[in-house]
Amino acid sequence: METSSAVLANALAAPDLAALKAAHDVPAAPPELQSRRAILEKAFDEDRDFLLRVIEKYVAHPGIALSWQEKREMALDVYTELFVEAMKTLEKFDPKRSPRPWLLGLANNVVLRKKQERSNDFKRAAQNVQIKSDDEASDAEFFDRLTAASRQYHELDSPLEKQAALDEILCNVSETEREILLLSIVYSLQSESVGAQLGISAAAARKRLQRALENLRADYFKRLALQNSVTETL
Known about the structure:
Elements: H1 5-11, H2 17-23, H3 34-46, H4 48-59, H5 68-88, H6 99-120, H7 122-129, H8 136-155, H9 159-170, H10 175-186, H11 191-198, H12 202-233
């Protein structure tokens, strides 16, 4: 029996203030910051649905049709980290101003940090696909290059620059390989989500990713060898 959307929405609702305080061990505020903490706690209590809606927009991946549940789960993760971050940086909050803009700015920073962490987590995908090579140093170079390129993509604002960054990461691969590398590496989606996007199982997505990575790795070192050869002849 399928869970109704109303039940699912309720299950993935933003936790109330009591739940946040119970789940996270945040330091006690010194006397001079207690009034600021009270203002921010009130904002989390009264504006939780608003904050969560905006955070969902922050975490959405352009061009990737994440399900409502996936976006909500990611947003909830950011929301809870936002609470901890806000309680630990009370001294930076101006109590004379509305807490909303400050909290949203802080939420954006949390999202950017998490996106960078997800980019760095590419090596976790590498562990899943188990690319085998006798040259571990070369593999590390390849993975570090992909990680840096993926991070650069997320830091760019211009669509043209983003496209150029993608072409740099995913050049000389087929459209099928490009699609799964985009989902898995650039957007750091897990195998289950990748499979759902492509209409295949998670296991099939992992196998397809492995083949794509192996081809991409071979192409990377082929181009690198060619570049070195040209340099030596100059």
